[in-house]
Amino acid sequence: MELVLADIEVVYGKRRRNHAVRGVSLRVRRGETLAVVGESGSGKTTIAKVAAGLQPATSGTVSWRAGDDDGAAGPQRVHMVFQHPVQSLDPSWRIRRSVHEPLRHLGVAGDEADRRVHRLIAEVGLDPEILDRYPRDVSGGQAQRVAVARALVADPQIVILDEPTASLDQTVRGRILALLGDLQRRTGVGYLMITHDISSVRRLATRIAVMYRGLIVESGPAPAVLAAPRHPYTQALISAVPVADPRVAWDGVVAAPRTSCPVPGPCHQHGPGLHEVGPDHVAGCTKADDPQKAATT
Ligand SMILES: Nc1ncnc2c1ncn2[C@@H]1O[C@H](COP(=O)(O)OP(=O)(O)OP(=O)(O)O)[C@@H](O)[C@H]1O
């Protein structure tokens, strides 16, 4: 499965004054992460919405190309994780109903639906007890894990992540990124990830596209772009110099690059699929199924 955006233009407003996206083309394949970065107002969220079918393009096309291993491919197998996790859940629904909803659309019900919902809730590291709560009764980090569970419960081919960690503190951010990476390795899901966060890019991106004033001004494989960024925004983002984006440099402090946890399987400290990042954690991180090492931590 491949999501292909070709020559997308989006002009907002009755008088069509705000040309938010100008001829953007990109593709996202299963098993990879395309990170779309760029300063505030450069058109990233607009692109995400166009890709998800939530915003019509003024011109250009969004298409789906099925691969050899695809079953019923199509936009119904795309899900989106928004930047405000609590707000993205219906406040009048218990968590259970929100996570079941994508399955209902697929016609999956009964025991099979319950089984899948419980499996995903466990995979995102939550206690099934949370299913009976309302969004107002869960933390931001828990709500974002619920949003990830909901996005993945129906086995989507592609998930669109719009600033999936923006509203989370550093610790929870690391867990969500580790979870997304782990789920991708196990299920082959592809991510179109919109972000300002360099640690998200380092952790997940296979390729990077840099937007500036509605255009893609730089793109390529993540290692190449990270090693030799050409555009000033990319250079600023990667060198962790404060950039003209209030959410990145609100207090003039930009997080230092963090390293990935090297443990490949379940982590002793954080359970299945939840790998904290950062040098502080890496030192004491052991595999959950290694009791000797685990006992020393
Ligand atoms: N519904 C809308 N109506 C009119 N203009 C809009 C609308 N949505 C976005 N815009 C404008 O389109 C441009 C691109 O916005 P968009 O939200 O896509 O940028 P962004 O890169 O995601 O920004 P941010 O990082 O701040 O979320 C901005 O100038 C924004 O003000």
From TrEMBL:
Name this protein carries in UniProt: Oligopeptide/dipeptide transporter, C-terminal region
Keywords: ATP-binding, Nucleotide-binding, Transport
The family this protein is said to belong to: Belongs to the ABC transporter superfamily.
InterPro entries in alphabetical order: AAA+_ATPase, ABC_transp_ATP-bind, ABC_transporter-like_ATP-bd, ABC_transporter-like_CS, Oligopep_ABC_C, P-loop_NTPase
Organism: Jiangella alba
Domain ABC transporter, residue spans: 3-238
CDD domains named among the record's database cross-references: ABC_NikE_OppD_transporters
Domain of life: Bacteria
